[in-house]
Known about the structure:
Elements: H1 3-48, H2 52-60, H3 68-80, H4 85-106, H5 111-131, H6 135-153
Organism: Laceyella putida
Region (Disordered): 1-26
Protein name: CFI-box-CTERM domain-containing protein
Amino acid sequence: MSSKDRERELRKQWEKEQQRRKEAERLQRKEKELLREKQKYEKKYKEDKKCFLTTACVEYYGLPDDCKELTILRHFRDQYMNSFDEGKEAIQEYYRIAPQIIKSMNVRNDRDVFYQSIYKDLISHSIELISQGKYQEAYIHYKSFVKRLEKQVL
């Protein structure tokens, strides 16, 4: 083998090694990204376990946790409500009272009525308003419904 052939062969090996290293680095970055996503999801799931919206959809109606309804409402919460101070406060208040509401509703004989109302009157109606771009109206509807529900069950 000539020295030029040997040089070309070494060059190819070096290039392959560089490609392997780049791929390994890309995979490490992807792995870290997936780990962050997993942690974010787990945190959100823990929060959502306290959520009567999730309870109504997942436990009462048997929908998946990533159903269209919850996906739209989570996006609304994260993008719209989280964009202004009063919305952020409403989110915090919701997570403060939601576990109490769930606990109170679950011991009632008429809990089915409440979960049906949450789905029909809050979730479905809010999604309708959101899909029409009526975000402020959806926000006001959400706040008044939650206050009414709080008064009824707590």
